Amino acid sequence: MTTETTASETPETPETASAPAPAASGLIGLPAPLGRALATGGGILAVVSAFMSWTWTSAFPGDLTVYGYPGGLQVLVLIGGILTTLFGLASYGVRGLGALTPGSADSALKMAALGTFGTAWYTVIAISDELGGVVNLDPGGFVVAIATLAAVIGALALPFERPEPDPVDPDDTGWELFKHNSRQNWTNFRAAFATKAPAPAPTLPSWAEILVIIAAMAVGLFVFSYGIGTAYDELFIGFLIMAGFGFASLSKAGIVARVSAITAKHRNITMIGAFVAAAAFPFTQSNDQYATIGVYILIFATVALGLNIVVGLAGLLDLGYVAFLGVGAYTAALVSGSPSSPLHVQWPFWASALLGAVVAMIFGVVIGAPTLRLRGDYLAIVTLGFGEIFRITVLNLDGTSGPDVTNGSNGISSIPNLNILGFDFGAQHQILGSTIGRFANYLLLMLIITLIVVIVFRRSSDSRIGRAWVAIREDETAALAMGINGFRVKLIAFALGACLAGLSGSVQAHVTYTVTPEQYQFAYVVPPNSAFLLAAVVLGGMGTISGPLVGASLLYLIPAKLQFLGDYQLFAFGVTLILLMRFRPEGLIPNRRRQLEFHEEAEAPAVLTKAGA
Amino acid sequence: MTTETPIPDTAPAAPGEVVLDARGVTMRFGGLTAVRNVDFTVRSGEIVGLIGPNGAGKTTFFNCLTGLYIPTEGEVRYKGQVLPPKSFKVTAAGIARTFQNIRLFANMTVLENVLVGRHTRTKEGLWSALLRGPGFHRAEAASRARAMELLEFVGLEKKAEHLARNLPYGEQRKLEIARALASEPGLLLLDEPTAGMNPQETRTTEELVFAIRDKGIAVLVIEHDMRFIFNLCDRVAVLVQGEKLVEGDSATVQGDERVIAAYLGEPFENAPGDEEVAEVEAAEAAAEPEADNTSDAVPGKENDR
Ligand SMILES: Nc1ncnc2c1ncn2[C@@H]1O[C@H](COP(=O)(O)OP(=O)(O)OP(=O)(O)O)[C@@H](O)[C@H]1O
Ligand SMILES: [Mg+2]
């Protein structure tokens, strides 16, 4: 029915304005009021069913047999159900909930319902599959399945504005027609989840804005600790589904945009808040096991953030970045007092960290000076080569193929724990009533390094030199013609990146006890390696601070938690990257420039005054 | 001695002082001689035009002047100094340029583009950015103020926070001019500044170029829009197949038969008689009023810088 409008679009404006109803239907052909009722009702029922028993035996992990007390995956469904219900009610225009959905309540409802459905059905199917049949489900299992299915059907029946279809070319062959139709369906499908730019936010008093930031940090900390703490595969998969759709629904609702506007306004408070939240993480954990994951994620994320200066800001594709982490780690290990180090000295931490950073920076300059004259792909290949040269050199400095410096493939082992001002990082400490173990100690130390890198990133990007980096990335010839000494500016970025990686390396050496050449390959199963670092930057969002942090967390957690992936880990990783590049090339957290790019319609000026000059 | 002083050494000194002096500039690409033995001067306070048919070598000549190409033969002096062979040093010396196919930093904001243009006139390095002393904030504020001034000058102050890529074509050209001016040049090279503009925009650009000249900056402009060139320029040089054919004021160049022949193609063995030339001229004159904005729709070639 909408096709006609393209043909005759002249005099009917009043009519189309008064009756947009036929154009706006849902993906599923149900009347809109029924759909809305189903979605909201389904949400409520899902909440109720989370308190029921889903299966008769506790053989399925998480113990879903108890009435009145949701456990494991039920908690996730409970959260999804609550979100669905809230957005459902908000889409009815319930007073007070309007503030929750400055964007589009309908799209948010769809996402929330999909997430709840996904988690619930995943659980139900996993129970039936693992325990051998649908008979293992208790009534609660059936209730939750039906409730979430109803919610999703109802939500998808909600009307949305379909985009104007492209006219079909009459000469198209069958295949072209098929392509055209599928493209059309895809645009329609995307339009079903479209959201409008939220109205300008009402100005809150600053204390309220700060409360919002604190709340956001608390939610972030909670989600992160929950994800790290998931004890079994099923729960982690459920967590991924629910967290993904939950985040999508919050962003469709416009809440994410609101919160990020507020955090952008109070950048310092946000930064402090984020670091307090991260520092609070070890205190929420009863077990040093999760602090271990935490510290490894933090090392990975910090190095990725350093790489983001080189790749995201200056646009230099560096495929050998992990070598600088290695240089820092080896340097610190050599002066750490380790028995397998040929230098029998034990420097204090500040000195070894400084040395690690400086030595890495020198390597950065030495490698950068000849290679940075190359552009694009050539630079990538040469840095890849240098990365491998580092590893092979270290491997050969073992006393047989070369001088004995690094102990070859055995690496430098038994690196002693740090001791800063009498605080022994190897021992447990009682702080504020919680036990802080070895890895938690290092987590807190690493957090300081992360803070340094964040500050360096922020300050350098917002300055003359940072603008020069971005200009070089955008158009090197034009940047040169604007008086930027391209080589020098690129060398600064390269050396700075190397220096920050070296700094992280000097902590990493102590955390891992041992440094070996294998840790610093181009591609390796355990994250901090050049391929994963680059992936973390690209996945998270180039040129942002939070992007690599999020990207690194995901890239570390997913392989660590999903043991069953096993040998398919790298394959799954590749597929994910391809999908991401296809559907969200700007990364999970696009930077400000890219965001502007996406809101160009919203920003486009209405009238252009031609009377310039 | 950094940022504040607007346009330091370009106060409209003794008019007639030679700013740019190119001698015997030749540029060969393998067997192709794109620019052949061109002598060329620009004096302060002048607006000089450079015209010629497509592929005549105008852009190549510009690239030789700005250090993007190193001329095969000949030398270029700016205010008596031989130009360094690096384009960023040329900019620092005082020659700024725009590009035939717009080369803005597309994903930076309008203001940031102009701030990048100020790179050579500011000194703050990485340490100052990391330590953020009072000097840093002062310099940054001064840069911003100066950049906003320039945006006002070209009429883009309202768009300071827009992405450069989102500007309409005509405004992108103006932004390129503002960005070039930010380096406080003594000589500005404009490569087809009105290409793709409508007649009204062309006129405001004309006024803009006059205003730039009034600031004491000499201007050298390539353009295919003859009306624009002859309105604007004190002197016009014609480049044909890499060689400078004619140079002189508008009237001289307009009346020169060789120029017309060059634009219409090489003369036949028996060159067109006076009658025919007059005929062509009459036709051109008649066509010009409505055709003045079609001639500028020459698409930029990919190899142009
Ligand atoms: N880098 C290069 N390598 C080889 N040939 C080149 C190069 N740059 C330009 N040329 C050639 O030099 C000649 C002059 O080109 P140029 O771009 O200077 O012409 P132009 O006068 O600017 O033309 P237009 O009016 O179309 O912009 C052309 O034949 C072009 O193909
Ligand atoms: Mg040209």
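^ magnesium ion complex. Chain A has two domains: 2-166+192-256, 291-566. The pocket of magnesium ion (ligand 2) is lined by residues B 58-59, 100, 304 (CB under 6 Å).
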